[in-house]
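Just scan this pair:

***
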Amino acid sequence: MKLRPVLLVILILSAFYYLTTHVGSSGTPWLQRAAPATTPTTQPGTSTTAVNGPMGNFQLTQASAAPAYDTEEQQNIAVYKKALPSVVNITSTAVAFDFFYGAVPQQGQGSGFILDPQGHILTNNHVIDNAQRVEVTLSDKRKFKATVVGVDRGHDLALLQINNANNLQPATLSESTNLIVGQRVYALGNPFGLSGTMTRGIISAIRSIRGPNNNPIEDAIQTDAAVNPGNSGEPLLNSRGEVIGITTLIANNGADQSSGIGFAIPVNTAKAVIADFAKYGRVRRPSLDIATLAIGPDIAEQIGLAADYGVLVQRVLPGGAAEKAGLRGGTERAGYLGNIPVMTGGDLIVAMDGQEITNTQDLAAAMNSHQAGDEVTLTVFRGRRRMDVKVKLSDATEKQERLS
């Protein structure tokens, strides 16, 4: 009798255990019943796709429609589509000689862009300098042998031509006189030989620099658009896909890659060079036919000049533009500046056409805005007397006497 309550309790507990662990409301074991199916939550404009395989089942969320581009992306795409057919890849082959005087071909790569349907192409001179063979590859992968028809080492520009090439799309040239720092720009070329590469940035500054051959580049366009080896000669574009400059140089502090500081020759300079090629078959660089020395306050005080800035005429070339205009060179040696003799007695140039000339860079910039044959007005000090002298600029050629 005493065991009956105990057995009853055991029976009740056993029944409860069985019901709670083996039987659910649907008649299936609770511990073996699958978790209720859930419907994945999707964002508007997306759908879910099941992918099944040996590793399991995956629920992938994908867009249910083609992506829509925002205004900025649309502009990027438009610039690329407009300019790409005009951009070319340039391969130059030069021959060097090894220790045993065996010929060793060396290849270099750069970029350029098409100027007209006749197949004229503009690039940097240093891209094709000393090359025995130049090959141009168009954006559609067609290849042509190119002929160098003109070079301007002073501006680091070269004009090429390819023949028998149809359906060429010339680039659209803009202006470079009213560029503004902060303006968006695009670089489109072949960095490291990777054709059709576009990068984007802004105009970081407009400044005068020295080019690859230490040649002065006035009003160079500085940009933070990524520029690397192989970009030389490519077009620098505005937001309408028009050329505003020709990429020529990167400031890399010895690293063979972009540092966010690239420079381009302004397109107006290129237009002047192209005009000279068309008219004369060569570049007619304007010249005063003088040797000069930049003047600062220290030198001016030592030799008793009337102004503490400007360029002092050291020598005039016989028969040159300066001599014909009556400019005077130095007559007496006053000492040396390093290894350079300083001659006194010559005219001190302080302005050209009303534009102040404080150093040789200012003079070079003023000269680059003119062509051979132009007449300019130089403001000079002759002793203590300030005067204006009209000078007709001459044509600087390779045959001219080298001034020193």
User: Anything to note?
Assistant: The longest helix spans residues 3-22. The longest strand covers residues 197-210. The domain at 80-96+108-162 is CATH 2.40.10.10 (Thrombin, subunit H).
